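2024-03-11 09:14:02 DEBUG pipeline.ingest accepted 1 chain
2024-03-11 09:14:02 DEBUG pipeline.ingest length=174
2024-03-11 09:14:03 DEBUG pipeline.predict start
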Amino acid sequence: MPDASREAPTVTPDGERLEQLPEGVTFRDAVTHVDDRGSVCELFDPRWGWSDAGLVFAYVFTLRPGVVKGWGMHLEHEDRYFILHGDLEVVMYDDRPASPTSGLVAKVYLTEHQRRLMNIPRGVWHANRNVGNGDVTVINFPTSPYDHRNPDKYKLALDTDQIPYSFAQGARGW
């Protein structure tokens, strides 16, 4: 087949993903314990040492199927997502001039089937897209409380020319 090309590897033999992520993005796997009564899953514990910033604020957001929320970016705090329900694509663009990954576009998928915490560093643009068939539920543990009078939130349109990424035609959201 002259037009066929070999697929590039996406994971190591141990199952670790090979894609490059913006400098400072980290994960912490969460374990869901199941028994005959139901299940329990720990969401966040400062004693884990996963993040230097303690637990100071938490909120939950949802996204309907096919909807994109973003582009958004913070200069004063990091987002720390925990996927509770659904399948979420997080697209990131590293616009930090001093970052070793400046200019990088990366995608990460968060799913209820492999729950984990994920941080998004300050200065990294990000957009969240529900890629599942039901609502996505995400808990965010940002590194500082929301300032209602002066929000640390910067936004760009989904179709901006400032980020070298394009969502599929007809993407709904902001």
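2024-03-11 09:14:41 DEBUG pipeline.report The chain has a mean pLDDT of 92.
2024-03-11 09:14:41 DEBUG pipeline.predict end
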